């Protein structure tokens, strides 16, 4: 006689989340990030904000479990989040390696040196925006651009009789243009990866709003330069400490060959990770010949030249480049890079995408956003809704990664249903999340820009023309249908 089988436990019924369920994680996020910024200031990005994100992941997980989900559901959502950023992780590590080697080999110093040669008070604001745009595009970081040459340009502004607040707006406009259009930018890579589009396709579509927005900003800055600057036409490069780069590096156009190689490989559609690593290795070999003194100073003069060069390239890729020139501005600009420099960013991204994945998996974000989507019946209203979410999260959460991750994940399905290509969403998410972050004083980006440039966020805000022209054009395209790509609805 067979024994009766024990009854299997029945899974708990899953309840739909309430409005309070949906609000609690976002309120927790806003509170924890605000607390981390209040306690640690700009150092909050060195770990406290990441911890805040992980705590918010647990808050969202507990709400989901209270509504009937299991811990296995939490783990499944986290695995999906990790899978979605696998390519981004490889690209970001390659970007870190590239920056370290480009500093070692003289590629970035040469770009900076040539850039400051064109400065003159009669076109100071326009030249500032252009120089910062080129440099940010070459290094992929708006923060580094603003924190190095941007600081120098704002400092020189007072000496030559131009306005620091307008100069700061020009610095930020150029820095965010380069940040958006650079394959080295972690926000650009992350946005493309989240939406599921190729990085180069994403950059190409971003150019449709970024370049016109920058032209608008450049024209305004040129008018302000010509009407408000003193009547001086001599270059002012000698006022900037970065002018001393030619005493440290051998400044030559040959140093720009790694940039040319990266551009060529990108045009040839070589996978981003391979293109970045190839350019880094080529720059290292080139630097061994062109920057022998810098290489010896980096690894130690007692090393065999060949072994020392290999060691220098390896260390620059792993831990970044460091220099002690005695000139603070140069040391700050060039002592950076390396794969390990990306680990804090990756930690932040992991926390952000996991939080977004759990909110999406458990229907928490849909509870808030679905009514907005239902009311956005036209493409123009949908674009305005995405912008409102991105900009609103920059205000509420105080961090651009949250403002990028959540709209990118939440609106993917709706864009697919309406037959809108994902490149539309990637461009709009970047315009709404990345660019507007510098306009919010308590956002980590706005706080950083205000602190390093020495100009309050609200003072430079009217002159950060690119940062509201770009999202404005993006929403306008949605309203008019201009440059809106369609796909079969799914």
UniProtKB/TrEMBL annotation:
<feature type="transmembrane region" description="Helical">
    <location>
        <begin position="381"/>
        <end position="403"/>
    </location>
</feature>
<dbReference type="Pfam" id="PF03553">
    <property type="entry name" value="Na_H_antiporter"/>
</dbReference>
<keyword id="KW-1133">Transmembrane helix</keyword>
<keyword id="KW-0812">Transmembrane</keyword>
<feature type="transmembrane region" description="Helical">
    <location>
        <begin position="247"/>
        <end position="267"/>
    </location>
</feature>
<comment type="similarity">
    <text>Belongs to the NhaC Na(+)/H(+) (TC 2.A.35) antiporter family.</text>
</comment>
<feature type="transmembrane region" description="Helical">
    <location>
        <begin position="151"/>
        <end position="177"/>
    </location>
</feature>
<keyword id="KW-0050">Antiport</keyword>
<keyword id="KW-0813">Transport</keyword>
<feature type="transmembrane region" description="Helical">
    <location>
        <begin position="48"/>
        <end position="65"/>
    </location>
</feature>
<feature type="transmembrane region" description="Helical">
    <location>
        <begin position="344"/>
        <end position="369"/>
    </location>
</feature>
<protein>
    <submittedName>
        <fullName>Na+/H+ antiporter NhaC</fullName>
    </submittedName>
</protein>
<feature type="domain" description="Na+/H+ antiporter NhaC-like C-terminal">
    <location>
        <begin position="208"/>
        <end position="482"/>
    </location>
</feature>
<feature type="transmembrane region" description="Helical">
    <location>
        <begin position="77"/>
        <end position="102"/>
    </location>
</feature>
<feature type="transmembrane region" description="Helical">
    <location>
        <begin position="22"/>
        <end position="42"/>
    </location>
</feature>
<feature type="transmembrane region" description="Helical">
    <location>
        <begin position="122"/>
        <end position="139"/>
    </location>
</feature>
<keyword id="KW-0472">Membrane</keyword>
<feature type="transmembrane region" description="Helical">
    <location>
        <begin position="274"/>
        <end position="292"/>
    </location>
</feature>
<feature type="transmembrane region" description="Helical">
    <location>
        <begin position="208"/>
        <end position="227"/>
    </location>
</feature>
<dbReference type="InterPro" id="IPR018461">
    <property type="entry name" value="Na/H_Antiport_NhaC-like_C"/>
</dbReference>
<dbReference type="InterPro" id="IPR052180">
    <property type="entry name" value="NhaC_Na-H+_Antiporter"/>
</dbReference>
<keyword id="KW-1003">Cell membrane</keyword>
<dbReference type="InterPro" id="IPR004770">
    <property type="entry name" value="Na/H_antiport_NhaC"/>
</dbReference>
């Amino acid at each position: 006689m067979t024994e009766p089988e024990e009854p299997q436990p029945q899974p708990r019924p899953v309840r739909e989340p309430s409005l309070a369920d949906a609000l609690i994680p976002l309120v927790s996020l806003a509170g924890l990030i605000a607390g981390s910024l209040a306690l640690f200031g700009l150092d909050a990005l060195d770990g406290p904000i990441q911890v805040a994100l992980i705590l918010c992941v647990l808050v969202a997980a507990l709400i989901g479990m209270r509504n009937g989900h299991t811990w296995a559901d939490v783990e499944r959502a986290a695995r999906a989040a990790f899978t979605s950023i696998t390519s981004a992780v490889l690209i970001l590590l390659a970007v870190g390696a590239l920056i370290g080697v480009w500093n070692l080999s003289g590629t970035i110093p040469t770009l900076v040196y040539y850039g400051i040669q064109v400065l003159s008070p009669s076109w100071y604001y326009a030249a500032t925006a252009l120089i910062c745009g080129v440099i940010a595009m070459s290094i992929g970081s708006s923060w580094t651009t603003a924190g190095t040459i941007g600081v120098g340009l704002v400092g020189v502004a007072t000496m030559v009789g131009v306005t620091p607040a307008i100069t700061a707006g020009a610095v930020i406009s150029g820095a965010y243009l380069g940040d958006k259009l650079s394959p080295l930018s972690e926000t650009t890579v992350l946005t493309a990866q989240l939406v599921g589009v190729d990085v180069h396709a994403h950059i190409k579509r971003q150019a449709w709003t970024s370049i016109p927005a920058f032209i608008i900003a450049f024209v305004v800055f040129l008018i302000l330069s010509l009407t408000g600057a003193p009547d001086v036409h001599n270059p002012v490069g000698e006022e900037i400490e970065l002018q001393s780069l030619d005493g440290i590096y051998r400044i030559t156009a040959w140093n720009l060959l790694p940039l040319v190689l990266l551009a060529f490989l990108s045009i040839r559609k070589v996978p981003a990770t391979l293109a970045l690593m190839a350019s880094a290795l080529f720059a290292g070999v080139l630097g061994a010949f062109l920057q022998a003194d810098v290489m010896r100073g980096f690894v130690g003069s007692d090393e065999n030249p060949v072994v020392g060069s290999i060691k220098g390239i390896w260390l620059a890729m792993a831990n970044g480049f460091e220099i002690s020139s005695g000139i603070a501005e140069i040391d700050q600009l060039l002592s950076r890079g390396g794969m390990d420099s990306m680990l804090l960013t990756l930690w932040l991204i992991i926390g952000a995408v996991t939080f977004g994945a759990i909110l999406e998996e458990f229907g928490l974000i849909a509870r808030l956003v679905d009514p907005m989507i239902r009311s956005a019946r036209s493409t123009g209203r949908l674009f305005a809704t995405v912008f409102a979410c991105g900009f609103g999260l920059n205000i509420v959460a105080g961090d651009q990664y949250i403002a990028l991750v959540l709209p990118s994940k939440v609106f993917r399905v709706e864009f697919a249903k309406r037959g809108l290509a994902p490149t539309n969403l990637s461009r709009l998410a970047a315009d709404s999340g990345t660019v507007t972050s510098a306009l919010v004083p308590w956002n980590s980006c706005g706080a950083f820009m205000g602190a390093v440039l020495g100009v309050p966020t609200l003072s430079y805000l009217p002159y950060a023309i690119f940062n509201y022209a770009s999202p404005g054009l993006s929403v306008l395209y949605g309203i008019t249908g201009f440059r809106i790509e369609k796909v079969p609805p799914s």
